[in-house]
Amino acid sequence: MARIELKNVQKFFGALQVIKDMNLTIDDGEFVVMLGQSGCGKTTTLRAIAGLETVSSGEILIDGTAVQDKKAADRDIAFVFQSFSLYPHMTVYENIAFPLRAVGMSNAERDKAVEDVAGVLRISNLLKRRPSALSGGDMQRVAIGRALVRRPKALLMDEPIGALDAKLREEMRAEIKRLHIARGSTSVYVTHDQIEAMSLADRIVIMHDGVLQQIGAPEDVYLRPANLFVAQFVGSPVMNVADVTLVGDGGDVTVTVGGTDGGFAFPDHVLGNARTGAVVSLGIRPEAVLLSHEKADGYMEVASTNIEPLGSHDIVDVRLGSQVLRARTESGFVAGEGQTVWVTLDPAQAHFFDPTSGMSLRGPN
Ligand SMILES: Nc1ncnc2c1ncn2[C@@H]1O[C@H](COP(=O)(O)OP(=O)(O)O)[C@@H](O)[C@H]1O
Ligand SMILES: [Mg+2]
């Protein structure tokens, strides 16, 4: 078990800076997921924590001790890679026991350590098999078992299930969560898959282009995105973003989308630090774009332009002036393209951003 801290960490590969002033504290026993697009610096950060990569400047602390100059072997951190390489000529037992060979355990102690970890991973019945006789999911269970058998201070996982098919990924996701609950080890998990991040993390670290964008619980990053990047990276379909004008002062403010005549009335307390008279970026998720079959107070008439039937629900595009907004509706709510519907926006689920910096204009609440 361990607390991991990164302080002002920078990493250059030649002239290319891939980690930009990273500050992060991972608490003892916490499950943190680093989420970001390919190339944003996730693997490099993880490798730096493990000691597989040096940092250019800054500090990495494990339980308060600076380790950035220590070798990987002296950090007691285990690493699971996406491309799990098991030793093909060894049995599952021998693969899991491999990290224990230098530890000087008795045979009985070693048997117990391997059986414990195999039990948690539900692969006790596979210990005599060779890797070639295992499914992809079981191979990855063995790779995780090998990482855990020494009871490391922390477990780092780099897209550990990215190579598996969708159904197996879902199963393994649940298992990794169960394993974390059973073992409680400090875990840092890297993925580009937001569903994986949302379902596993105590806290998500969102990265973009080497820069940490936001750290927060899954509901935090979803409900209170710090900037436009996070707002549009988390959530599917992506949050609608439209430049809007805000007119009015005190009480209700009119939010005009796509340059239409008139707009939607929002109580001014939802505006946060957004100022009336200005153009701001409105972010509104498809579930906060509300459609009606009938004309109603506060709704505007629109035509639906595209319908994506997704089984459990539909995504319907509607055009407001120059702006298309995507709405999430019940299946079959809009029968066909071109049908007239009425639309409104839920002010309680509206986000406002500075159109230049992209930073959230949320108030203190
Ligand atoms: N050993 C290396 N030498 C040079 N550039 C590297 C090296 N490793 C990674 N990079 C570059 O650093 C950036 C971040 O890579 P990486 O940390 O692997 O991102 P991610 O895991 O988020 O996809 C990428 O532009 C990548 O090409
Ligand atoms: Mg990577």
Descriptive report:
The chain is an alpha+beta fold and 365 residues long. It has 2 domains: 4-233, Rossmann fold (3-Layer(aba) Sandwich); 240-353, Beta Barrel (OB fold (Dihydrolipoamide Acetyltransferase, E2P)). The protein has 8 helices and 20 strands. The chain has helices spanning 42-50, 92-97, 107-120, 136-148, 166-183, 194-200, 218-223, 228-233, and strands spanning 4-13, 16-26, 31-35, 57-62, 65-66, 77-80, 154-158, 186-191, 203-208, 211-216, 240-247, 252-257, 264-267, 279-284, 289-292, 300-309, 314-320, 323-329, 340-345, 350-353. The strands form 4 sheets. Strands 6-7-8-3-9-10 form a 6-stranded mixed beta sheet, sandwiched between helices. Strands 13-12-11-14-20 form a 5-stranded antiparallel beta sheet. The protein has a 5-stranded antiparallel beta sheet with strand order 15-19-16-17-18, with no helix packed on it. A hairpin with a 4-residue loop joins strand 11 (240-247) and strand 12 (252-257). The longest helix has 18 residues, at 166-183. It is elongated and about 80 Å long. Magnesium ion binds at residues 42-43.
Query: Under the CATH scheme, which architecture of the largest domain would be assigned?
Result: 3-Layer(aba) Sandwich
* Portion in strands: 25-35%
Report the top-level CATH class of the largest domain.
Answer: Alpha Beta
Structural class: alpha+beta
Instruction: Please name the fourth-level CATH homologous superfamily of the largest domain.
Output: P-loop containing nucleotide triphosphate hydrolases
The main β sheet shows up as: 6 strands, mixed
Low-confidence stretches: none
Strand tally, please? 20
CATH topology of the largest domain: Rossmann fold
Helix percentage range: 10-25%
Shape: elongated
Strand order of the largest sheet: 6-7-8-3-9-10
Number of helices: 8
Mean pLDDT: 93
Summarize the helix and strand pattern as letters: EEEHEEEHHHEHEHEEHHEEEEEEEEEE
Radius of gyration, in angstroms, nearest whole number: 25 Å
Number of domains: 2
Ions, cofactors and other ligands present here are:
adenosine-5'-diphosphate, magnesium ion
The CA-CA distance between the termini, in Å, is 35 Å
